[in-house]
Amino acid sequence: MSLTSLRELPPSLAKLPRAHGFPVPWFVCYFNGKPDFRVIDPVKRLRAMKQGLCWICGERLRPSKTFVLGPMCVIQRISYEPPSHPDCAEAAMRICPFLSMTEFARREAQLPDPSKIETIPLMQSHNPGVHALWTTTAFRRDDTLVHVGAPSSVTWRSHGRPATRAEVCDALKDAHARLEDKGHLPVLWLDELHREAIALAPPDPS
């Protein structure tokens, strides 16, 4: 990640507090006055859903909303995280180490007491290497997850750049295998969801 990425932030993110040189997303939980980028504040998650706030900057959402989804979530069309402004989500893809560097894994060391943090269902501990910016005007939520609506656009990223079709298809194939191993979905339905996800992959370069 370059210093240019940090300079070219939308105003909503530029005014966020910083820690270790990075903007602290609105959803981050604080412990003893310090932010832990790995931990979601459950109160803010509920506020974002009920009040229509951007997950990253905390300001009011506009009609077009963007989810940052890994391949498993793209296949299932679900997210644990509420949506963000499209420009906030795009900026997060550029500056978040987990999203912009495929070799970057989630750090599990020195996490807060599990009893004091909210468990994230279906969270991937591995880095899938490819993520999607899924922009939509519709979504619905149940008690735990957000179900994303049909996309108006899907943009794929890998290594902080546009992902190739081969990278996306490989990531979706791996996600399909992981979901099949979990056995949460009927095989035929999972296969159909996988085909629908492949249809959203970028075209081969001409």
Task: Give a short synopsis of this structure.
The protein has 206 residues and is α+β, with helices and mostly antiparallel strands. It has one domain. 33% of the residues lie in helices and 20% in strands.
What layout of secondary structure does this protein have?
Elements: H1 3-7, H2 11-14, E1 18-19, E2 22-23, E3 28-31, E4 34-40, H3 42-51, E5 65-69, H4 71-76, E6 78-79, H5 86-95, H6 97-100, E7 131-136, E8 139-141, E9 146-148, E10 153-158, E11 161-162, H7 165-182, H8 187-198
Antiparallel strand pairs: 1-2, 3-4, 5-7, 6-9, 7-10, 8-9, 10-11
Which descriptors would you attach to this protein?
alpha+beta; single chain; 8 helices; 206 residues; 33% helix; four-stranded antiparallel sheet
Description:
With 206 residues, the chain is α+β, with helices and mostly antiparallel strands. The protein has one domain (3-104, 122-198). It is built from 8 helices and 11 strands. Helix 7 runs antiparallel to helix 8 (187-198). The model has no long low-confidence stretch (mean pLDDT 86).
Q: Helicity range of the residues?
A: 25-40%
Largest sheet: 4 strands, antiparallel
**What's the order of the H and E elements?**
HHEEEEHEHEHHEEEEEHH
Overall pLDDT score: 86
